[in-house]
Amino acid sequence: MRRFLGLLQREFSLFFKNKVLLVLFLGAPVLYGVLIGQVYQKGKVVRMPIVVVNEDNGPMSQTFIDMLGDNESVKIAAVLPNLFSSKDVALSHEATTVVHIPKGFTSGIQQNRLPELTIFVDGANTLTSNTAMMAVNVCAMTMKAGIQIQSQMKRGVPEYIATQQYEPFKTTIVKQNIRTGNYLYFMLPGVLITVLQQVLLLALALTFSSEFENNTFPDLVKRMPNVFGLILVKILPYMLMSVGILFLYWGFGKFYQMPLYTEFWWFALCTFLFILAVCFLGILVSAVLPSQLKATEVLMVIATPAFILSGFTWPSSLMPVWVQAIADGIPSTHYLRIFRLLFIQHGDKMHSYHAVKALAIIAFVCFVLAAIVLYIKMRKVKKEERALVLTEG
Length: 393
Hints:
Elements: H1 2-17, H2 19-39, E1 48-54, H3 59-70, E2 74-80, H4 86-92, E3 97-101, H5 105-110, E4 116-122, H6 126-154, H7 159-162, E5 170-176, H8 184-204, H9 209-213, H10 217-223, H11 227-255, H12 264-288, H13 292-303, H14 306-309, H15 321-328, H16 331-344, H17 353-392
Parallel strand pairs: 1-2, 1-3, 4-5
Antiparallel strand pairs: 3-4
Helix pairs in contact: 2-13, 8-11, 8-12, 8-13, 8-16, 11-12, 12-13, 12-16, 12-17, 16-17
């Protein structure tokens, strides 16, 4: 029994001496609890941006716009005079709904000509689009009821009858980008992209940390004394293997008959930047931490919540600013935005410029920091070698 208690004490001692394991074991549950709680804290989708196209400019249309502004589920991101640029404006504001108020809307209601209010819904994300669509539809139904009830009561119709007889204008809902309603087309690519990032990070965690742990880094420096060449040697195999994984993903798309079409070369450039950013991030952590286990643990902390924080399924605008800042430092956040814009929402490539710029910044910063860390370690190795030569001499 004494021996067992002694071994038990030894295990606790080893655990508390491993600072990285201690931080992860005790800190990860707290970190993920806080992150997930902050992401979904509001519990419901509110203040979803919408775009209103007002071609009427009459009192009825203004009343309807005011009602939309008072609804907590939506916020008016822009009011346009026509439909020509509405799609681009909606994509730039990440608006899932465009409300079209036609010319003659006010006069049509007054003259009982049944004007048509059209709601264009981007079904790329059913959660956000349904919330915005329902909010707009509720406002429309409320306005219909109010107009017709007042009109009928002025004619002497009892209120309980008037409430059953209202249709001052039509409401038409046009759903776009719903991919025949198959949620697989939305979820599968998002999960696969996150998995690709996680696989790359876990593999790259071992690149330099294994060299440090096995004492093979000095030999590596002898064979490749240039820091840029050293980084290229380490990331090139994984970049090439990533192409194979992407072809596998393309095969999944064909197998599930997913309609994935966009401008090939632009998406190829975005994909290259994404892989480059992930590789440099993995190289940086691996160069900083001399232990394979520690490097893997740290990159797991980064990779695990990536999909939740990306804003792909839950709007990033509902997350606290500090959570958005963490998400913006993860490459998959920006790549998933690019994918959604190009493949699901059929947006022009100009709408992805911001995400491409963010990927380029992550790649550049991680590359520079990794190069500095490796340069310092390479210089230390060369200095030790020169000292050894002098000693032997």
